[in-house]
Amino acid sequence: MKTVLDFISEYETLHEVLADHKLAALGDAYVNFLFSIAESKKNREPVGARVDNNLLALALRKSGLRKLLPSRTNRHEQADAVEALIVYAWIRNVMTIEEGVNILEQDRDVAEAFCSLILTAKEKLSL
Fold first, then answer.
1. CATH 1.20.1640.10: does it fit domain 14-125?
2. Would you state the pLDDT for residue 104?
3. What is the rounded distance in angstroms from the CA atom of residue 56 to the CA atom of residue 66?
4. Is the pLDDT of residue 109 over 80?
5. Alpha helices, H only, the chain
């Protein structure tokens, strides 16, 4: 399968994706970009937004995927796992930027919106 970034490994398990710190670093920028676009559309003006680690950790818990990480994983590491998963779905061409933005702008509760995005990415990756 052709990917957006062909040098990124193809993972066999969800745990491998969630644990990739380099993927999380790219995911940080990607998630903030998606969120900024969604907020810009909602506010009908350009917005540059950053997603709080606590919010992403909460969304991970709501999604039920927190259990895949070690018990002593802190909120920052949980947020990294979310960011890795979301950007990996884009890299593997299973979720577009438009889909991500649409999911984020559907729900007024941002944690619920990110929970939906996490579950959609997981489902589309089939890991």
1. no
2. 96
3. 11
4. yes
5. 14-18, 21-43, 53-63, 75-91, 97-106, 110-125
**Packing angle of the helix pair 21-43, 97-106 (nearest 10 deg):** 60
Q: Are 79 and 56 in contact (CB under 8 A)?
A: yes
Amino acid occupying residue 23: L
pLDDT tens-digit map of 9-53:
889 999 999 999 999 999 999 999 999 999 999 999 999 999 999
Is the overall model pTM greater than 0.70, yes or no?
Answer: yes
| Alpha carbon 86 to chain centroid, angstroms | 3
The domain segmentation of the chain, as residue ranges, is 14-125
Residue 127's CB is within 10 A of a number of other CB atoms, namely 18
